[in-house]
Amino acid sequence: MHETHLIQPVIDGISEHAKKEGAKAVNKVRLKIGNLTGVKEDSFRETFFVLAKGTILENAELEITPFPGTRVEVVSFDIDEAAD
């Protein structure tokens, strides 16, 4: 899957950051995807959900905004904080 090398670092980075913030789950992920990456949104979404399975991002809603660029950027993500 062409998208795997773009998505896996995003999932890993968000997971690591969210866990440091005490998250039990990530609810929503907002990404910007460059038009020049050569990926199709449907394929990107499908790969994202496959790779997120079993992670803190497993049930996250994915919001994608295209932009004229060559990379994937994390705009923001929402978390559920763990109970103290």
What do these coordinates show?
The protein has a single domain (4-81), classed as 2-Layer Sandwich (hypothetical protein PF0899 fold), CATH 3.30.2320.50. The chain is built from two helices and three strands, in the order αβαββ. The protein has helices at residues 4-20, 41-52, and strands at residues 23-34, 61-67, 72-81. β1, α2 (41-52) and β2 form a beta-alpha-beta unit. α1 packs across α2.
CATH level-1 class: Alpha Beta
CATH topology: hypothetical protein PF0899 fold
**Helical stretch tally:** 2
Q: Outline, from the CA principal axes?
A: globular
- Rg over CA atoms: 13 Å
- Average per-residue pLDDT, rounded, comes to 93
The class by helix and strand makeup works out as alpha+beta
How many discrete structural domains? 1
Tell how many strands the DSSP assignment holds. Answer: 3
* Helix-strand string: HEHEE
Task: Provide a brief overview of the structure.
The protein is an alpha+beta fold and about 80 residues long. Helix content is about 35%, strand content about 35%. It has helices at about 5-20, 40-50, and strands at about 25-35, 60-65, 70-80.
What's the topology here?
Blueprint: H1 4-20, E1 23-34, H2 41-52, E2 61-67, E3 72-81
Parallel strand pairs: 1-2
Antiparallel strand pairs: 1-3
